[in-house]
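Entry for the shared binder. Reason: the reviewer on the internal report wants the predicted structure included alongside the sequence.
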Amino acid sequence: MIMKKLFSIYEKYQEKINYLIFGGLTTVVNLITYYIFTRSFGLSELVSNIPAWIIAVTFAYTTNRMFVFRSKDKNILKEIISFFIFRILSLIIDMLMIYIFVNIFNFNDMLIKVISNIIVIILNYIFSKLFVFKEGR
């Protein structure tokens, strides 16, 4: 009975639940990569954010296409370009938050990175839902 209820809830909110799962995994990929570049390689926060973003967005596109929005769009190049363009918008927000709160106000970089990722996840869902994966579903 409980499993049946949980399954019906999952079916009803499948896209949002999957987005939260894969958005969370994307955040983990982003944070680990960022941590490695800042702590292991000694790069600055802003420089480390770029490879972390590239790796995380590549992971996000793949999982969003396959598991969240289940896109069947044949024009993959258009979809990828659109996905990356909207992710660049969220990268700008992420970079601004790091610059302002870490470089100017000296907050802990990992704390700001987590807060920034929460904001970015929400924005990215809206961008993906409304602009990127609207066709071919």
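Summary line for the report: The first helix runs from residue 2 to 12.
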